[in-house]
Amino acid sequence: MVDVQAVLTQSPGQQLAFVPLADPEKIAETLTAFANTDGGTVVLGVGEDGRLGDIFVEEDAADALQAALRLCRPPVRTDWSQQQVAGGTIVVLRVGRSPEMHSLWDGRVVVRKGMENRPAEGADIDLLLANRPVGDFEVQEVPGAKRDDLDEDVIDHYLERRQRRTPRSGVLPKDKLLQQIGALTDERTPTVSGLLLFGKEPQLFLPHSRAIFVRFADVQPRGPEGSFGYGRREEFSGPLPKIIDRAWRVIWEEMDKRAVVRGLHRQEETEYPSASVREALVNAVAHRDYRLTGRSIEIRMYTDRLEITSPGGLPAHITLDNIIEEHYSRNPRLVNGLYQWGFIEELGLGIDRMIEDMVNAGHKPPKFEAKSHRFTVILYNTRDSSRVVQAWEQNMNERQIKAIEFLERNSSITNRDYRELCPHVGPETLRLDLADLVTKGIVLKIGDKRGTRYILK
Of 291, 325, 313, 329, nearest to 376 (Cα)? Predict the structure, then answer.
């Protein structure tokens, strides 16, 4: 139960309002503003100055509230209680942040800003929609789009991967299956999800559904010479699977790579764990809010971090505090399509694995930033080398790696063997390479002069 005395000592603000009179229009406006924003408490029957207004009995309070709710589109859910205070009775209403966008009887959409209810402007509407479930948006038909705007090769590839993932599923005629998954309407018109997954050129109809990659030569948005700008910029268009593939190839090209040997095995180590980068990229494509126009997915690579930003805040009840435990899909059809395609391995485990892969590779955990209109994943390339690899593994050159690979296949290596592996390198350089491996404790030197050979320690 709300502590009424504590509430009455507070001033109105972002989540607290006082309505002294039984005015259904004023009550409805305040309920809608709270539901559209962060929720809050509405105190009926007392003013901001603490003076009592209308004195409610239970029936009057119920009538006033019902009249107010009839003015909200759709009605706002509230928890309310009637409580006694010195000199009269007040009603306390608790309003939660709504998963829907509410308007008033006259079409106005209001939001709470500070201690006031204000009409929502165009940008406010975008932000409201960004945090609400999409509902049937995915299956809305796209004006002007026709069945021929879908790419048959992309559809066939999807069907092949779907059958491989779920071999026991029934085989339907192509268009029938597309209708079943919401890609086509009953009249064979492409839907939003249909164009995004299978369109030849979805950006002709949904221009914001592209992704942009920018590489900076600093920790700030600077170009190669230190001036403001970028070193490389790429735009990715087409259906979502192609956007993911093309973006991943560019990120892979731009990531630093090095060869290391762990135990007896040579491995290629990337600047960021590949699985974490792919997960962040796929999540951005799958979960962005495609209702928000004028904004694209942005991939920014700095010298110390990789940032992947998708338009639209966290959906429904998801917050930064529960993002690991709770799962909610803004675009369930797109997510299922990418899952069937193989871009998503297991539904609902992406964030967990991203964090695990980063930490296991010695990096800091990913950082998540959630704003009302965007969500960003930040991966840092710094790592604690003592948790992952030893210093000698980080510094081994390509010639030494060839020697280790030779030793994995053979019991020993001689100077002659090493010269044959690296015929264009001087003998003194090769001798120093082997001496370095001995110093690092990787190999043992056995014998002397012409009988010298090296074995793995």
Answer: 313
